[in-house]
Design a protein that fits this description.
heterotrimer; A mainly alpha (121); B mainly alpha (534); C mainly alpha (502); A: 121 residues; mainly alpha; 2 domains; 3 helices; B: 534 residues; two-stranded antiparallel sheet; 3% strand
């Protein structure tokens, strides 16, 4: 077996063990716990609030837009961290590259701001 | 001037009509008089150039190309802008430049419904460029482009200015011909990629028709040759049209406006037969030999089928259309013999059929204009009501059925004769059988044409039209448009050598290049020369 | 931890950037940013200017493309992941000019409707940016990034008529199918990377094109990648999104999708076939052959029964994609001819198809629909448009002397030149299909010319200046390509094989 495939074997074993553990604990719990079903236990949230209406209720679109903006800057961070770690090696070239990258993202943020996305009315 | 003529004469004659069309596009539609003048002027200019070329043509060497233009065109595929004229294309080019002005003259007061003379005349000028170009092009791609340029104008002429069933007829015409030409193009491409120089064995990679005729399919394996010929056969055969691809023709003719029918019959059908003798046969003689019996078979079926079809028609235009199928059958039979004699007859047949059937459609158009019907059963007594029209119809019917002394005879009779002794390698018995069948065909032709004449021209005028003031005799415009054609039918009938002398050297040239003319045939070739005063 | 990471990676070598080679992309990026900035500064007040700025941006991008073409040298960056050669330049020019015509088509359409205008042009420019990047991409990652950059804006543009249900359907179908295709392609790419250990197409080629049978991983990778692009170019059986999307999207965007987006798919496919998979024609030729034959036949047969002009053009586009695929089915036998044929077809197709859509947009200004029956009697109230439409339709059908004949001719030339049974059969497929296609094109011609207008309504239609100039440009190009085919013939004499050993 080639090295390449061997490294996948590790992943495969790891995955199998993971599944086996989850299965083992759930199965063990089932064996040990008492089994007394009632209606309250089947509700979506057992937080004391009675669920009303349909499961497919609409949530405000603004949550979605904020989530999108969040993802945008999250991804930005993913790129910035490794860049920061190697900034000395990249020198001024890297600085300019990152400036352009952030500028384009910033344009997006400015756009969102001017279009009133950031206001929660 | 002579230099210009030699180098650019053919380019000029080809594109003069197109230039006229471009000028007309700039003039508003309302000014119909100007459009008629320009279109007629452009076609007359082409005719004048044609006459100059006729005079300048070196008849001593009619076998070789003259007025050759050879310029760069599409370098990537080594296709060149080559034009040239030899004895084979000269009669057909002359026919085109002669017939077109007559059609424009006829259009002077015959713009068909729904009017819009501007578009109608522009389309006819584009058509003329396409047809002349096809006859003088000496490069396969150039030939193909001109061959296809003809399609669109004709399609629109039928679709817009045609009869009640025009949409069906125009689409059928278009689809049939395009189907053939698409496969023909595949054949051209295969020739391009497969032809080899017989001396060096190198690939030629050229579309130059002269070079391809010279190598005559050398280096192409027989099975490929047969396939390539098959593609061209479909392309040209549909255009001719050979039985069983003829079904578009009666529809197209019946629905087309008079001018469209005349052009279609007089010139367009010849593009197909011309393709056979200019391209398919000289470039692939071996395959031609193998295909010849089948072509001959379809030709004689066409002769008989066309004749029987005529007998069943009640519509005058449809009858003439079926008679076209029969007449083109004679032309194809002549070609299928692959002899000098037969092919000469075929070219004569093309010219004669162009003049005669063109005239028949002119007369049919005039009859329709007067009687508003072409139903043979309702017509009658034309000789009494419009005697000159009746006599003209009589004259061309006689020419069409092949009366000796008129042009039709020299197309049919030698073709039948040639079938007696086809080229070497072609089954003689088969062709002798064809000959007999074709001879029966001439009798049938006499039958249906005389029947047509009798029903329409003779007898008493039917009651329905007896006092119709619309029915007048031949008008001045009609006389101007028709006289040249009528005269030529007579002239060529009396002196067929006028055409045979021009075509024969070119035919011999193109056949000699490719076929080792068999001993038996040389005799016929000599006989031809002797018979027609060569 | 970070220090540890820094120790392990090799020293950073500053990539050599050839600013001239990257100039087209950078120019377009600048103008894209400019369009957005205009919106940030002026908001609605900048509306009128955006289409002008966007078209200036495209014309400005043509400048470096022309200087690069004059310069003539092949340029390569990032270890061969970004290549500027004649092929790339031609395709870039096609994308830019197509984009320009699309802006001409859009100007009045977007301004007169209830649409976001600024974003429209911004997204259009970024989509075109993805396309010109694609023309240079010779690396799996670059190709994928370019593909997403051109696709994602296009998904949004397809839904631009947001109050129209059909437009929503259009965008949704396009989006779902596109993402699905991307996923399949990405899987194929990962297999190829796994099989060869590199994302560079030249490296991939070196590792997979050796003699002997290819490994199963490579075969699967190649097929998945081709299937992914088959979605993009709407080849049968992956065409199902096209008619609905074309019908629902705003018509200028339909034109954009059917020309530019399709061309981008073909560019990527050609990059893959001619650089990455070259020498593995035993794998890709049969797949492409089947796709090509199916596309042209099924596309044409379904087009016969359409009653809506845009849907008809969609199915005819499917068939046209089949024609363009045809030479790629013999790409291994006659690479140069096949490439020239497909590139030439793309160039000519862009002119004639954009023109056809320009007429559709112009006619819809009066009729408000694209039903074929509304084209009846067009000649009586819009003779100019009728002549233009006739030119474009018969060019698409391939009738000389209009542009399309040369395109089809090169296709037939390439498949016949291959001199294989598959090639000849493909040639016959193309020939027969041209005839089927002619039926529906000619039928529209008859309707326009020979039938009376519905309700005898012959009020003329006002065609705005920008639309007229788009019509004139495309019609002139369509006719010029047909009469002087040497024009296209010369510029498409390109080669993609420079980087491949052997």
């Amino acid at each position: 077996m080639s090295d390449f495939l061997r490294s996948y074997l590790t992943v495969a074993i790891f995955g199998l063990v993971g599944f086996a553990l989850v299965g083992a604990f759930l199965g063990l719990g089932r064996l040990l716990r008492p089994d007394k079903p009632n209606l309250a236990k089947t509700e979506a949230y057992e937080s004391g609030v009675d669920p009303t209406g349909d499961m497919w209720s609409q949530s405000n679109i603004r949550y979605y837009i904020f989530a999108l903006l969040f993802v945008m800057f999250d991804v930005e961070a993913v790129f910035i961290f490794p860049w920061a770690a190697r900034l000395e090696a990249y020198e001024i070239f890297g600085l300019i590259e990152m400036a352009i990258f952030i500028f384009i993202l910033l344009l997006g943020l400015l756009y969102a701001w001017r279009k009133g996305v950031l206001k929660w009315v | 001037m002579t230099d210009f003529l030699n180098d650019w004469g053919l380019t000029a004659i080809t594109f003069v009509p197109l230039a006229g069309a471009l000028v007309m596009m700039l003039i508003p539609r309302d000014n119909e008089g100007a459009h008629k003048q320009i279109s007629l002027g452009a076609s007359l200019l082409a005719l004048a150039l044609g006459v100059v070329l006729l005079f300048d043509f070196d008849y001593g060497s009619a076998g070789s190309l003259q007025f050759v233009t050879d310029e760069k065109w599409i370098e990537v595929i080594n296709s060149r802008y080559i034009l040239g004229l030899d004895g084979m294309s000269l009669p057909l080019m002359a026919l085109t430049v002669l017939v077109m002005p007559l059609v424009f003259i006829y259009s002077w007061n015959h713009i068909p419904e729904p009017g819009n003379g501007k578009a109608f005349l522009i389309l006819m000028l584009i058509l003329e460029t396409g047809m002349i170009g096809t006859f003088v092009a000496q490069d396969l791609i150039l030939f193909f482009v001109f061959f296809e340029v003809v399609l669109l104008p004709m399609f629109f002429m039928i679709a817009v200015w045609g009869g009640p069933n025009r949409r069906y007829a125009s689409l059928k015409f278009f689809l049939f011909t395009l189907f053939g030409s698409a496969l023909m193009l595949l054949g051209f491409l295969a020739l391009f990629f497969l032809s080899k120089d017989p001396a060096t064995g190198e690939l030629l990679r050229t579309f130059d028709m002269r070079a391809l005729t010279d190598v005559a399919g050398a280096g192409i394996v027989r099975s490929s040759q047969l396939l390539i010929f098959g593609g061209m056969f479909l392309g040209f055969g549909i255009k001719v049209p050979l039985f069983p691809f003829h079904t578009w023709l009666p529809d197209a003719h019946t629905e087309a406006p008079t001018q469209g029918s005349v052009i279609l019959a007089a010139i367009l059908l010849k593009l197909g037969t011309y393709g056979f003798i200019r391209i398919a046969i000289p470039m692939l003689p071996e395959a031609a030999e193998a295909w010849a019996p089948w072509i001959g078979l379809l030709a004689v079926i066409g002769i008989i089928y066309g004749a029987l079809g005529c007998l069943a028609q009640t519509d005058m235009k449809r009858l003439i259309a079926f008679s076209s199928v029969a007449h083109m059958g004679f032309v194809m039979l002549g070609i299928a013999t692959l002899t000098d004699f037969g092919i000469n007859a075929a070219i004569f047949g093309m010219v004669a059929h162009g003049l005669i059937t063109g005239m028949l459609f002119f007369v049919a158009g005039s009859v329709k204009e007067r009687y508003h019907t072409l139903d043979i059963g309702r017509l009658g007594g034309m000789l009494i009501q419009a005697p000159r029209l009746g006599w003209i119809l009589g004259f061309i019917t006689m020419a069409s059925l092949g009366l000796p002394g008129l042009a039709g005879f020299w197309g049919e009779f030698p073709a039948i004769l040639a079938a007696y002794q086809p080229a070497n390698g072609i089954p003689v018995e088969t062709f002798r059988t064809y000959m007999v069948i074709a001879a029966v065909g001439t009798v049938l032709a006499a039958g249906y044409l005389l029947w047509l004449l009798q029903r329409t021209a003779m007898g008493e005028p039917s009651e329905e039209f007896a006092d119709d003031p619309n029915i007048t005799d031949v008008s001045r415009i009609e006389w101007i448009a028709w006289t040249p054609m009528l005269a030529l039918i007579l002239v060529f009938g009396v002196a067929p050598g006028l055409i045979f002398e021009i075509t024969d050297p070119a035919v011999v040239e193109s056949l000699n290049n490719c076929l080792q003319l068999p001993a038996g045939c040389e005799g016929v070739a000599e006989a031809t020369q002797a018979a027609f005063g060569g | 931890m970070l220090a540890l990471l820094a120790q392990q990676v090799p020293d950073f070598v500053r990539p050599d950037i050839d600013w001239h080679a990257a100039a087209p992309e950078l120019t377009l990026l600048t103008f894209g940013a400019l369009v957005t900035m205009m919106d940030i500064v002026w908001l609605e007040k900048g509306r009128k200017l955006t289409s002008i700025v966007a078209s200036i941006g495209l014309l400005a991008t043509m400048v470096p493309i022309i200087t690069l073409a004059v310069d003539g040298a092949d340029r390569s960056m990032f270890g061969g992941a970004f290549v500027v050669d004649d092929y790339a330049l031609i395709m870039k020019a096609v994308f830019i000019l197509t984009g320009y015509v699309v802006i001409l088509l859009s100007t009045n359409y977007i301004a007169e409707g209830d649409y976001w205008e600024n974003e429209y042009y911004g997204l259009l420019l970024s989509s075109i940016l993805g396309m010109i990047l694609m023309a240079s991409a010779r690396d799996l990652i670059t190709i994928f990034v370019a593909l997403e950059l051109l696709s994602i804006p296009a998904y949004m543009l397809a839904t631009w008529r947001k109050r129209d249900l059909k437009s929503n359907e259009a965008g949704m179908k396009y989006y779902l199918m596109g993402v699905f295709a991307s996923a399949i392609m990405l899987y194929g790419m990962s297999l190829l990377y796994g099989g060869s250990g590199s994302t560079l197409l030249t490296d991939i080629n070196e590792s997979i094109s050796g003699p002997g049978d290819p490994s199963a991983v490579v075969v699967l990778g190649i097929i998945f990648v081709i299937v992914g692009f088959a979605f993009k170019v709407s080849a049968v059986p992956f065409h199902t999104w096209a008619p609905d999307t074309y019908e629902g999207a705003p018509t200028p965007i339909t034109a954009f999708l059917s020309v530019a987006s399709k061309a981008a798919g073909f560019v990527a496919l050609m990059n893959m076939l001619f650089v990455g998979f070259f020498g593995r024609d035993d794998v890709y030729e049969p797949v492409i052959w089947i796709l090509a034959a199916l596309s042209m036949t099924v596309g044409n047969l379904i087009a016969l029964r359409q009653t809506n002009m845009v849907r008809l053009l969609a199915y005819s586009g499917v068939a046209q994609a089949g024609y363009m695929l045809a030479p790629l089915a013999v790409a291994g036998d006659v690479p140069d001819s096949a490439l020239a044929a497909t590139v030439g077809y793309l160039v000519i197709y862009a002119a004639m198809n954009l023109g056809a859509f320009a007429v559709v947009i112009a006619v819809a200004r009066k009729t408000r629909t694209a039903e074929i029956d509304d084209y009846r009697g067009l000649f009586h109230w819009a003779p100019g448009l009728t002549v233009a439409m006739t030119v474009f339709l018969f060019a698409l059908a391939g009738i000389p002397p209009l542009g399309g004949w040369w395109a089809k001719f090169r296709i037939m030339g390439a498949v016949i030149e291959a001199n294989t049974a598959a090639g000849v059969v493909m040639g016959i497929f193309v020939a027969v299909n041209s005839v089927i296609a002619l039926y529906y094109y000619a039928r529209i011609g008859v309707k326009m010319w020979a039938e009376p207008a519905p309700d005898d309504d012959t009020a003329p239609v006002r065609v705005p200046v920008s639309l007229t100039s788009a019509l004139v440009l495309t019609a002139a190009a369509t006719i010029a390509f047909g009469v002087l085919p040497g024009l296209v013939g010369e510029v498409t004499k390109v080669s993609l094989l420079a980087g491949v050993g052997g």
